[in-house]
Each structure stands twice: as structure tokens, then as C-alpha cells.
Amino acid sequence: MDPLPTPQTQPGREGLAALLAQPRTALVGLDFDGTLAPIVPDPEQARAHPDAVPALAELAPKIASVAVITGRPAEVAVRYGGFDGVPGLEHLTVLGHYGAERWDAATRTLTAPAPHPGVAAVRAELPGLLERSGAGAGTWIEEKGRAVAVHTRRAADPQAAFEALRGPLTDLAARHGLIVEPGRLVLELRPPGMDKGVALLDHARATGAGCVVYAGDDLGDLPAFAAVDELRKNGTPGLLVCSGSTEVTELAERADLVVDGPEGVVDLLRRLAAQLG
Fold first, then answer.
1. What is the rounded distance in angstroms from the CA atom of residue 155 to the CA atom of residue 129?
2. What is the enclosing helix (H) or strand (E) of 27?
3. What are phi and psi of 193, to 5 degrees?
4. How far is 166 from 23, CA to CA, in rounded Å?
5. CA 31, CA 187: separation in Å to the nearest integer?
6. HEC readout, 54-121
7. Pairing of strands 109-111, 101-104
8. Which of 70, 94, 111, 231 could form a disulfide with 236 if both were Cys (CB 3.0 to 4.6 A apart)?
9. CA 184 to CA 44: how far, in whole Å?
10. Cα–Cα distance for residue pair 13/201, rounded to 1 Å
11. Cα Rg of the chain (Å, integer)
């Protein structure tokens, strides 16, 4: 197995050193789409990288906790990830809808609050708004249970459609008590109050994490990066990993370590597991 890559920042090097020194206190947090699963034109066809589950199953027993933190419904992430019933992943937690839902591998149970009424209202208005927007053919709506997302990846000019819809969707969300979460050619309308940073901090505190690693690829992962920064300021070492892409550069600029997409994330997980013996 090749040696571990060296983080480009001093806080990142300290975070990696802390994980290697005291792995039983380590929390590894991971986004799903774009981090464990390659981005695909149809989100319903997204699946974890074929080596992701074996790598996680090898690493998870050697550390305190693994948490997949995603904007998807937790049950969908579990199904698309192939996480259920995998030996070695008994302590995996999937925090869906930015932490509003929780699935625990040990008990195979899902806990979730009641849905926000604004989501149903937005869902009813979206088709008409898209028709009037002039964003063009190829935009489409993804149902996410406790949220709804508008994708522009299939449009003739995906970025232009994204920009054309950003204002109208923000206004629509605000009228119904929701917020807009922009991503890689997608705009998600969801309830406020939860984000990946809140979810990561809550889970780190609940598990008593002594160091935290977080890997993500998109704008929705920036709050999780900020959470790791907050933990580091308060004395908990951390490592920020960017699953690199050419579509989003903000995370690479903030990361301690940039890897080559989901394949690079899986390779890092496997190297960590091997290093821990």
C-alpha cells in the first residue's frame, strides 16, 4: 500500500497525526454524492464507488465512528451506498437531510421529524415556475421527501439555467419558510436550521470525538468544513479533505488535502485502514 498523502497545511498535518496516534477517538465524516459516489446525470442512478464499502468496512472497526452526512434522505443513501448489513460497518451512522434524519447500522433504525409544510407548497408551485422561467428544456425536479431539488445539468446551457433559476427559486423558498442550498448544477429547496456543519458538530460531541476528518465535494459541505475549523480552534484536531472536481473550487481552496474525486477518497480510506494495521 502506498504511503498516506501529506496534507498541504499545518492544521491538516496535525489532524492526520492525531488520527494515526489515537484512532479509537477519531470520527470520519463523509458526504455521499461526489465524495463516496461519482456524480451522474440522473441522481437516482448514483451508487457508491464499488470499492467504497469495502474500504469503509476495513477502516471503521479501527476508529470511533464513521458518519455519512448527506442532503439525501437517509434511507436512500443507505440503499444507494449499499451500507445495510455489512460486517465491519456496525457503528456506521447515516445523517440524511443534513442531519434531520438518522439511520444507525447497529439497530437498522431510522429516526426523523415530521416534514416541513413548506416543502409540499413549493413542490406544487415548481412546475409552473420552471415553465415561466425561460431557463430552457432540460431542467427537472428531483423529489427528496423533506426537500425538493431543481437540476440544470441536462439543460442546453447548464450554468446559464442555474443562474436564471437561482433568484426565482430563492424567492419561492422564502415565501414558504425554506432556504435554497446551491450545489453542482442543482438548487435544493429545504427547511432551515440544519446543515452539514450542525450535523457534524452534533455527532462529534455525541461521540466524544478526539479528532475529526471530513471529506466533501460541494458547496453544501462548506458548513462542515467550518465546523471542523471551529473544532480545531477549540483544541480538537481535524483534517479537511476535498473530493476534487472542476465544477466547484471553493472546497479545494479551503481543504488541507485534495484527492481525485470518489476514487481518491476511497484510496485515502484504504490507505488509512492499512496504516492503522
1. 16
2. strand 26-30
3. 100, -20
4. 42
5. 17
6. HHHHHHHHHCCEEEEECCCCHHHHHHHHCCCCCCCCCCEEEEEHHHCEEEECCCCEEECCCCCHHHHH
7. antiparallel
8. 231
9. 16
10. 21
11. 18
Q: And the C-alpha cell for 91?
A: 457503528
Counting every residue written for the chain, the total comes to 277
Select from 217, 270, 205 the least CA-distant residue to 244: 217
37-61 pLDDT, tens digit per residue, is 999 988 889 999 999 999 999 999 9
DSSP state of 33: B
Please measure the distance between the N-terminal and C-terminal CA atoms of the chain and give it in whole angstroms: 11
- In DSSP terms, 151 is beta-bridged to 140, 186
| HSE-CB of 268 using CA atoms within 13 angstroms | 25
CB 30 within 8 A of CB 59: no
Q: How confident is the model at residue 134 (pLDDT cuts 50, 70, 90)?
A: confident
C-alpha 39: how far from its chain's center?
12
State the pTM of this model.
0.85
Element (H, E) at 150: strand 148-151
Region of 187 please: left (phi>0), alpha (psi -120 to 50) or beta.
beta
Contact assessment for residue 212 and residue 238, using Cβ atoms and an 8 Å cutoff: yes
Quick one: residue 86, left, alpha or beta (phi over 0 = left, psi -120 to 50 = alpha)?
A: beta
Q: What residues does 214 pair with on adjacent strands?
A: 29, 240
For residue 198, the SS3 value is helix
